[in-house]
Amino acid sequence: MDKQDPIVRKSLQDNAIDWLRREIVYGRLQPGEVLTEIALAQQMGVGRGTVRSALFALEAQELVVRSPYLSCHVAPLNAEIIWEIYTLREALECLAARIYVSRRTPLSRQKLNQAFDGLAKAEKGDMDSRVEADLRYHRTLVDATSHGHLNRRHKQLQDKMEWLYRWSEGHWPQREPLVSGHQALHDALITGDEDRAEAMTRQHIRSSLEEDLQGFAGLSSTAPR
């Protein structure tokens, strides 16, 4: 008999958190949309207490915002938020690039090369494939540092990055070709020194930031007033 992955048992609350997270990250609940316990409880088929716990959990992840009058809504998305997500990501991944190069091993090279190959496979795929391959490449880089604090901070940003990636992929043209957009970065990580790897990481992320800001500006200019 083939070995099967173990069954993952989740509590009702964990399932509610996962459901609400997907609805937000996948854009089915729009930025700024009001979230009410009654409506969500009906959609999820759970009690309001479970919904309340899920809202608190996603508030901690900054996907949900609570107003002074205790109403909740999906976190807003604007140019300032886009800038904040990317600049924090830049700080974390530039550090990751330096550490990766300083600790580079045959195994870490193999893993990063595999993640890069995954970009080519996803290049012409659907949004899910593209977003997952892009995020996986950057996760692989950070994971390879074996820096616990850095990994935890980067994981805290993952949902926001996926949320932004999916929003941009769904609302303006693809941000960049996956392979050619990562080629210079990958070459620097695999064969370069720490300074070059950091510089290419910064250039890669700032290029993505500029494209998303331009896309958001174009989207805003055509929105009904």
Short synopsis of the structure:
With 225 residues, the chain is mostly helical. The protein has helices at 12-25, 37-44, 48-60, 79-102, 106-122, 127-143, 148-171, 178-191, 194-222, and strands at 34-35, 64-66, 72-74.
Could you walk me through the main structural features you see in this protein, from its secondary elements to its overall organization?
- This protein has 225 residues and is mainly α.
- It folds into 2 domains: 63 residues, Winged helix-like DNA-binding domain superfamily/Winged helix DNA-binding domain (Arc Repressor Mutant, subunit A, Orthogonal Bundle), CATH 1.10.10.10; 144 residues, GntR ligand-binding domain-like (Four Helix Bundle (Hemerythrin (Met), subunit A)), CATH 1.20.120.
- It is built from 9 helices and 3 strands.
- A 3-stranded antiparallel sheet has the order 1-3-2.
- Helix 6 runs antiparallel to helix 7.
- The termini are far apart.
Q: At the third CATH level, what is the topology name of the largest domain?
A: Four Helix Bundle (Hemerythrin (Met), subunit A)
* Biggest sheet statistics: 3 strands, antiparallel
Shape: globular
By DSSP, the count of extended strands is 3
Beta-strand fraction estimate: under 5%
Which structural class best describes the helix and strand composition? mainly alpha
Quaternary state reads single chain
Number of separate structural domains: 2
Largest sheet: spatial strand order: 1-3-2
* CATH class value of the largest domain: Mainly Alpha
The poorly predicted ranges are none
